[in-house]
Amino acid sequence: MKEGEDIIQILELFGGIGAPRKALINLGIPIRSIDYVEIDEKAVRSYNAIFNKDLKYKTQSVVGWNLKPDILIHGSPCQDFSIAGKQKGADLGKRTRSSLMWETINIIKQMGVWKPKFVIWENVKNVLSKHMRHNFNKYLDEMNNMGYTSNFEILNAIDFGLPQKRERVFTVSCLSGTFFNFNILEKQKTPNISELLEDTEEEKYIVTQPSMLKKINIKDGVFGGRVEIIKDFCKTITTKQMRCPNSGVIDLGDGRYRYLTELECWRLQGYSDEDFYNALSVHPGRKGKLNGALYKQAGNSIPIPILESIFKELIQSEIHLKTKCG
């Protein structure tokens, strides 16, 4: 870090395993995570292991009001918005997991005069459906009432260098009065998924459950089920692989199929192998069994390269604004 160089202060709500922090570190941007809020104790352990040179956090459900972040990132729970869930919604006061999005609004309001320059919200595409859109619109209205201009876009991980078809809604709210331009985000060429796969036929990853094999349902070489065979890319990384639908399965070429490994799922979200093994050190799992904690943490994460692209544009626009005003 250069002497006198600005440090970006971030506040991570529903922080998971720290995708925003990883993205900024990967960009070489000096940052300070002034607080991190996450109620999943296992995710906190992984977060601490990944960022083991920094302050250790405990699980938290509330945040102090005296913080002054430049960027607030919240990926509030998606289960009650998701088609895969029961679509309970996120109406204020309904006490669903997804309704915790209103806590973010409350936190910003309680900050008083100081407000984050940028607020980023990530959630499932179904938040824009006719049944959920009223909550999304209310969120935009609340941000507008606090002085933010907001813009949103559905972004796909496969356009940002990850061979994973994962569409999520990203909303960027700016306090400067400008709309964030998603059209100029830097995208990356995506490699074939084979470049991220392990060479393994370990027994625990082989699909043996009749219910899952039935969902693959290959007849006369034609796919007929809901569990797809992975070719160039996979479907959305889910919190569990031994389920339907899932991210897809790997064809081993001899009538057998295997699930994606925990490491592969982390790679497909943009994490390094070092990140994964740091998390594995605190969640070793049971021998011969799939590691549920590490699958869940990957499935709940935000693709790091998408955040890198968003942060890069935000930082550049902030520098431009300072130059222009100066």
Automatic annotation (TrEMBL):
Its EC number is 2.1.1.37. It comes from Marinisporobacter balticus. Keywords: Methyltransferase, Restriction system, S-adenosyl-L-methionine, Transferase. The active site is at C78. PANTHER family: TRNA (CYTOSINE(38)-C(5))-METHYLTRANSFERASE (PTHR46098). It comes from the Bacteria. Belongs to the class I-like SAM-binding methyltransferase superfamily. C5-methyltransferase family. It is an enzyme of class 2 (transferase). One of its GO terms (molecular function) is DNA (cytosine-5-)-methyltransferase activity. The keyword Transferase applies. This is Cytosine-specific methyltransferase. One of its GO terms (biological process) is DNA restriction-modification system. SUPFAM superfamilies: S-adenosyl-L-methionine-dependent methyltransferases (SSF53335). The keyword Cell membrane does not apply. Pfam families: DNA_methylase (PF00145). It catalyses: a 2'-deoxycytidine in DNA + S-adenosyl-L-methionine = a 5-methyl-2'-deoxycytidine in DNA + S-adenosyl-L-homocysteine + H(+). InterPro entries: C5-MTase (IPR050750), C5_DNA_meth_AS (IPR018117), C5_MeTfrase (IPR001525), SAM-dependent_MTases_sf (IPR029063).
